[in-house]
Amino acid sequence: MKRTLLALAASAMMTTSVMAENIGVSMAYFDDNFLTILRNAMGDEAASAGGVEIQFEDARGDIGKQIDQVQNFVAQGVDAIIVNPADTSATPRITKLANSAGIPLVYVNRKPEDKELPEKVVFVGSDEVVAGRLQMEELAKQMGGKGNVAIMLGELASNGTRGRTQGVKEVLGSYPDITVVEEQTADFQRSEAIDLMNNWIVSGTKIDAVAANNDEMALGALIAMKQAGIAASDIAVAGVDATPDALASMKRGQLFATVFQDAKGQGAGSVKAALKLARGEKVDTIVWIPFKLVNKENLGEFLDK
Amino acid sequence: MANATDVAETNAPARKLPVEANIFLVLIGIAVFFEVLGWIVKGDTFLFNPQRLLIMVLQVSIIGLLAIGVTQVIITGGIDLSSGSVLALSAMVAASFAQTSDYTRAVFPMFTDMPFLVPVLAGIAVGALAGFINGSLIAYTAIPPFIATLGMMVTARGLARYYTKGQPISLLSEEYMWLGSGTIPVIIFLMAAFIFHIALRFTRYGKFTYATGANVQAAKVSGINVGRHLIKVYTLAGLLAGLGGVVAAARAGSGQAGMGLAYELDAIAAAVIGGTSLAGGVGRITGTVIGTIILGTMMSGFTFLGIDAYIQDIVKGGIIVAAVVADQYRQRKRAKV
Number of residue pairs across A and B with CB atoms under 8 Å? Predict the structure, then answer.
């Protein structure tokens, strides 16, 4: 209670003194490549909004540390908190902390597992299911609506694996002539994907397309094909993430397609949502930042991102 | 257990089968199991496909290299938990010296287009150094090998990530990637197995290794410098993990900090399935090679049958334990005869 009062007093002081917003951000990891792009985009957005103070903390994947950081932000009386959850199952505690202090809270990138987000708590991210849909739509077009597809699953307990695979299957619902002939995991790893693809090729099942849950596995599948003497034009392989390696592979005419997850869009979107909430404006509970399909036609715009 | 088997062998010279015969039977059993299921489920052969036989070994050659190292460590009565992480660190270092100059964001722009031996030696050296540190810690601070190598497991993984802040190192030279192409990883694995099999069975190095694991006190009394010998064994295990990293990066055409995650456990499983006793003093490279191939057979078998990805590991764990139980049971029975 004392802390809440203190926080209220502090926030009142801050808003009256400089009229500038203060945002506290707790990131799951500082050293993750994707999250670094996202974090930089937050900083840029805050700078361009003018007079917005933004403070970043690294939770190092530790949910306990993240909760401490959020508590500190509450005590500091920031105007809004942005959390990139270290563990999505622990978000209800964070939600409660911010909500009881009346501070707006924005979750970014990883979807919180709260049953329902209260007022002034929102999620900004991308819908994994859409990534799977975009990927499979593009493959289905290439396959002419018929043939055999193999699905390479990521790490089995991950949101990405579940969502993306669900998206792939949703699309397949409208293509009765496309059959899923294989569905196995390669743990998001390139090396594992080489072995898995080798085994598929040896099984002799005809595969027309591979829908991989991420780019690393798609690249692994292509390495296995190359060693088995199968041309990239014989099996269309698609991934998700649009990593530099994947884009380079597309440029060489190897990888067929990938899906770009908009780290910049998510970072900027989260700061925008936080500012709106801090100013008392309404924001949708979930703000989807769209995934973007990358294919031969639009590869150029992603190569230099 | 070794003594019991020896006794059985002297009692029944007509049935003088090597210890590995048992575990080889387990391998055959698993293979036949998949063969039969293959005909029932898919109407296709599992074993009579030379491509698949190659892949069964190819996909575990890197784990096999780690397993050869950890077998020797376990024979000395120790354990090495760091091999998977050391593999990742070596893969990163090797890859950073194998990049081509047409990559604009090379880790070391001045070290691109290097002759292929440079990344290979760099990777192996990093592995050997990590192993040397493991061995020195164990020999001179007397901390348990479990703790020393656990520390290295965490540190080496951290270093692998820190090296490029988690970024993969890609666009490696064709020359270097040759090491990971076709049957080369299998050849490297089998050559390493052959060398260390000879070393363990016919050299002083091997005698010291078994002696240390069987009874440290006796080994010391008989004049073996146990500390120095342990450093040798752990350094070689690290070197093999380094070699594994070199091959892994060549195979994937990329060095990645997440490589070899939990490989140390597969390597230990391969050694133990192959008859290496965690109590020390017992174990052979031939057994470890068979143990490794059992893991590869299971991987291929599961994919072949299209077993649901969500239940594969559950079955795999069961088979690993069952294989060792079956082996122990057969050995005990033989010892009684």
Answer: 82
